[in-house]
């Protein structure tokens, strides 16, 4: 009869979204949580979740099948790989999951309001080997997108001059001029205190010295665009990935988790 819904159709409509079915597994959720903090190898994840490697690899494969997680070969050890969670995709799927339960459950990211100046909230150091592209782009993005509330710096183990294609990619694609930045050696920052140290190069991660104050260490496994035969498009791609990663970094550093969530779901005029 017109307007009637079959029991089978209702059952299908009431099934949890695929994201919940995949990510809701306790071990997969733990893996996603660890990868949300830092890129990791299988060996590292095995130790963090205290589970056998074959089981961790199995669940990582399930997360890769639905494109929540991806893997890149390590530039330091080509036999290994670093796993990365796609936080942008997770955010979108979480939003869709909420609205699937009720249209009033909108997931919105809290605004950073980077245009508003304020006191320094954190010091972040970005590291790579040649410090000629990735770390300097990340430094500029963190400083600019935070409105100066994050004090960012960069250094490397074997500094080289800033790559002109990095300057071009940042200016053309992100409106930031990094031409005046300088490549620094690790020795120039080794005595300084930082709240977070982020390595962007697999090689420099293995030689990073201990810094004062035991800062939180994070790894972003990002290939050096200067080693990519694609030329300028490789720099554009890395700059875009850094824009996304820095955005999530700043959300964790600048957004107060104690701020009340908005309760008025009405659209603003």
Written account of the structure:
This protein is an alpha/beta fold and 269 residues long. The chain has two domains: 12-101, Orthogonal Bundle (Arc Repressor Mutant, subunit A); 122-254, Rossmann fold. Helix content is 42%, strand content 12%. The chain is built from ten helices and six strands; from the N terminus they run αααααββαβαβαβαβα. The chain has a four-stranded parallel sheet with strand order 4-3-5-6. Strands 1-2 form a two-stranded antiparallel sheet. Helix 7 (134-145) packs across helix 10 and helix 8 (164-174) crosses helix 10. The longest helix is centred in the last third of the chain and has 23 residues, at 232-254. The two termini are 42 Å apart. 30% of the residues are buried. The model is unreliable at 261-269 (pLDDT under 50).
């Amino acid at each position: 009869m017109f307007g009637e819904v079959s029991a089978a159709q209702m059952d299908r409509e009431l099934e949890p979204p695929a994201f919940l079915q995949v990510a809701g597994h306790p071990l997969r959720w733990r893996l996603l949580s660890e990868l949300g903090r830092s890129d990791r190898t299988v060996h590292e994840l095995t130790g963090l979740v205290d589970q056998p490697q074959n089981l961790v690899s199995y669940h990582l494969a399930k997360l890769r099948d639905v494109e929540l997680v991806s893997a890149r070969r390590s530039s330091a050890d080509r036999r290994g790989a670093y796993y990365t969670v796609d936080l942008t995709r997770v955010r979108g799927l979480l939003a869709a999951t909420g609205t699937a339960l009720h249209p009033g459950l909108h997931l919105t990211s809290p605004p950073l309001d980077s245009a508003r100046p304020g006191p320094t909230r954190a010091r972040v150091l970005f590291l790579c080997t040649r410090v000629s592209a990735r770390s300097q782009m990340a430094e500029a993005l963190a400083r600019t997108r935070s409105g100066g509330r994050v004090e960012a710096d960069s250094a490397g183990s074997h500094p080289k001059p800033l790559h002109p294609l990095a300057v071009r990619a940042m200016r053309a694609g992100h409106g930031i001029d990094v031409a005046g930045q300088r490549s620094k050696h690790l020795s120039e920052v080794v005595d300084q205190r930082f709240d977070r140290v982020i390595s962007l190069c697999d090689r420099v991660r293995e030689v990073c010295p201990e810094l004062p104050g035991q800062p939180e260490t994070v790894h972003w496994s990002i290939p050096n665009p200067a080693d990519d035969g694609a030329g300028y498009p490789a720099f554009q791609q890395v700059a875009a990935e850094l824009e996304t990663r820095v955005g999530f970094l700043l959300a964790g550093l600048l957004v107060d988790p104690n701020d009340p969530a908005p309760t008025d779901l009405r659209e603003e005029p």
